[in-house]
Design goal:
The chain is α/β, with parallel strands linked by helices. It contains six helices and seven strands, in the order H-E-H-E-H-H-E-H-E-E-E-E-H. It has a seven-stranded parallel β-sheet, sandwiched between helices.
Length: about 180
């Protein structure tokens, strides 16, 4: 076994990436304070060909030096847009056929390991502020709340880590259903 060199990774060009079919998954970041978290989420979205990222509320937008540190160019490959009002965005996406889910601990969660999207589902996930979580008004506006099962004492994950786990699990399930 050996580590692969950059040349051996066979990275595709930016133009090829942009023209490829994307995972029918949108990530909505609402009131994320840390620009490092924003950049990390861009990089994860690139890795799994997420369709789009929406940046809402106080979430910083590219171009930004702090976002660029962790995004490593993913702000150029992943389509993104700023929308001030997350509730308006969720309403619009629902009318366009997107299933919307907050990533949050709630009284009535859908545990991520038990969630099974339908083959033709288009899914938008919403992640909220690092301290306060998602906007409470979203709870009645979305299709459900996805929760990552946790077994330690903290019951808390960094928002970029939580987003990565959810993106991976949804990508795996969505592409698995397409291949069967």
């Amino acid at each position: 076994m050996k580590k692969l060199s950059l040349a051996e990774l066979n990275r595709i060009s930016l133009d090829d990436f942009k023209s490829r079919k994307k995972t029918p998954l949108i990530v909505i970041l609402d009131d994320i304070r840390s620009m490092n978290n924003v950049g990390s989420i861009f990089r994860t979205a690139d890795a799994f060909a997420v369709e789009k990222i929406y940046l809402c509320g106080i979430t910083a937008t590219p171009p930004n030096k702090e976002i660029a540190k962790t995004a490593l160019g993913a702000t150029e490959s992943v389509e993104w847009e700023y929308e001030k009002e997350v509730l308006e965005l969720v309403g619009r996406l629902k009318t366009e056929g997107w299933k919307t889910y907050v990533v949050e601990q709630t009284s009535n969660p859908i545990f991520l390991d038990q969630f099974q999207p339908k083959t033709d589902d288009k899914i938008a996930i919403i992640l909220g502020n690092e301290v306060f979580g998602v906007n409470d008004q979203l709870l009645s506006a979305v299709d459900g709340a996805l929760e990552i099962p946790q077994y330690g004492t903290k019951h808390s994950l960094n928002v970029s880590i939580a987003c990565g786990i959810v993106i991976w699990e949804l990508f795996r399930k969505m592409t698995q259903s397409l291949n069967h």
